[in-house]
């Protein structure tokens, strides 16, 4: 259990712009200095905020301000590495795609070597033909469809705004568990796609479909476990999650759910309803 990272601390680089020197540590300040030394790319950040705003308005008929968007990225429903990824993607801080157009003699690095198209974040997360995104989104949709019928058409704006969805109940109030579940699965999946891309492009690795499938299943199981642990009021106090909300968030998407007690929070071995791919993987 202890290897599950709960990632509940606030992310200082974008929550606390003015930190008293005495309260920080060297690692934190280094992080901030590295960030501040990067040239701000205002235009692309504004355009990404607008992408999120547009798609959230289109799907959910909800007008979101910049601060709502930035707050949604800080949601602790999303694990910290994925929060950092989304925040950097909002700022286009990654050296991908069109970034290389301005670097003499290295323009080719901006092209996807499989698709021969600019390797933008949108291309990586949603369009690329390399094994990864397609398998992962198919699995994500399958899990969602175990409980919910319509899976939205994914765009970069919706992925960056994944913690800002406004699903509503039939009575019109916010459907917290559904919104939460979307944020969890979308952020987990996009961050895995990004990691697999980096392992391939920077590390020269190739991935089999079985490996990708099984890594996704393992990450979702670990997200489920994280939310089970977060119901511990004694350990997490005001940061703890309501038991009922966690039960409701994962209801309908669990493995062998009929065999579980109504309250399975303290049960060991609760798993999501999509199983590892045992073909060719040696798992069994
Ligand atoms: Zn590609």
Could you list some keywords that capture this structure?
mainly alpha; 12 helices; binds zinc ion; 284 residues; globular
Characterize the structure shown:
The chain is an all-alpha fold. The protein is built from twelve helices and no strands. The longest helix has 26 residues. It is globular and about 60 Å long. The two termini are 22 Å apart. The site of zinc ion has 7 residues, from loops. This is Reverse transcriptase zinc-binding domain-containing protein. It comes from Favolaschia claudopus.
Major sheet characteristics? none
Q: Structural class of the helix and strand makeup?
A: mainly alpha
Overall geometry: globular
Please provide the ordered H/E string of secondary-structure elements.
HHHHHHHHHHHH
- Alpha carbon gap, first and last residue: 22 Å
What Rg is obtained from the alpha carbons, in whole angstroms? Answer: 20 Å
Arithmetic mean of pLDDT: 87
Residue fraction in strands: under 5%
* Count of DSSP strands: 0
Instruction: State the helicity in percent bands.
Output: 40-55%
Q: Which small-molecule species are bound to the chains here? A: zinc ion
Helical run tally: 12
Unreliable segments of 5+ consecutive residues: 12-19
């Amino acid at each position: 259990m202890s290897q599950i990272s709960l990632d509940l601390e606030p992310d200082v680089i974008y929550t606390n712009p003015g930190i008293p020197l005495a309260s920080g540590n060297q690692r934190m300040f280094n992080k901030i200095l590295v960030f501040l030394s990067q040239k701000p790319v205002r235009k692309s950040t504004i355009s990404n905020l607008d992408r999120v705003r547009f798609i959230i308005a289109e799907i959910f008929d909800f007008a979101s301000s910049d601060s709502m968007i930035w707050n949604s990225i800080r949601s602790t429903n999303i694990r910290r590495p994925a929060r950092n990824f989304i925040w950097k993607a909002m700022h286009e801080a990654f050296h991908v795609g069109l970034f290389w157009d301005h670097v003499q003699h290295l323009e080719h690095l901006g092209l996807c070597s499989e698709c021969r198209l600019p390797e933008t974040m949108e291309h990586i997360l949603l369009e690329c033909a390399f094994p990864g995104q397609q398998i992962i989104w198919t699995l994500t949709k399958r899990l969602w469809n175990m409980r919910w019928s319509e899976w939205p058409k994914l765009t970069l704006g919706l992925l960056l705004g994944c913690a800002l969805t406004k699903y509503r109940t039939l009575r019109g109030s916010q459907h917290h568990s559904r919104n939460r579940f979307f944020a969890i699965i979308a952020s987990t999946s996009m961050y895995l796609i990004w990691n697999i891309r980096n392992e391939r492009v920077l590390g020269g690795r190739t991935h089999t479909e079985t490996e990708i499938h099984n890594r996704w299943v393992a990450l979702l199981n670990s997200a489920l476990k994280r939310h089970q642990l977060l119901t511990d009021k004694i350990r997490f106090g005001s940061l703890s999650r309501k038991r009922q909300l966690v039960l409701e968030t994962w209801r309908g998407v669990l493995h062998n759910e009929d065999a579980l007690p109504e309250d399975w929070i303290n049960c060991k071995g609760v798993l999501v309803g999509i199983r590892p791919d045992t073909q060719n993987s040696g798992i069994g």
